[in-house]
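Hey team,

Sharing the VTT domain-containing protein run so nobody has to redo it. Sequence (214 residues) first:
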Amino acid sequence: MADVHGHEFKTRLKLEFPSNLKELQSLAQVLKEYSKTHSLYVLVLFSSAYVYKQTFSIPGSVFLNLLAGALFGVNMGFPLCCVLTAAGASFCYWLSFLVGKEVVEENSHQLVYYLLFLRMFPITPNMLINLISPLIGIPFNMFLVAVFIGLMPYIFLCIQTGEMLASLTSMDDIFSYETLLKMAAIACVALGPSFLMKNPNKVKSKQAINGKDS
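Structure output:
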């Protein structure tokens, strides 16, 4: 339990991750009041909770993104969550690299079952990517850039919506069909250049065949 005091505000709040919109709105209301006199404490508390969830692949980052919008607004909340997402995902990457890679190497003859476990484990796809990236040899610099840039549209949407957190009535207000289609379109645009780039392996193979023919 934690006591939160304002000049004319006194309540008792159980600090825990919100699991629904009502809990999120209550938490945001109390923390906004508390941040008026303890802004640094709220910032450190929020950042620690965010990185913790990302590091250990705990679902529910959407609630913290919305909370960031309510507490800090878009101008501060958006870059803050982008950095925290990259930091937490990086910790998850190295944790998986140090622990998971050894497990895979020791059980390579059972790899199919290990991968099935990762697929069935109840975490979101982004969390799954964080876990398996070091296991399948994705370089860390490529992983970090993809996390920081690739999640920007999603984070911005949540932060922007979080500024109007008090007026939300359902999580469906955030992810409407129109919004999901826009995000899908952005993803397709990002994928576009890959269709224009030549596969270096195919180019080398073609060159080798031409060399033999000559």
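DSSP finds nine helices and two strands in the chain.

Ping me if you want the raw files.
A.
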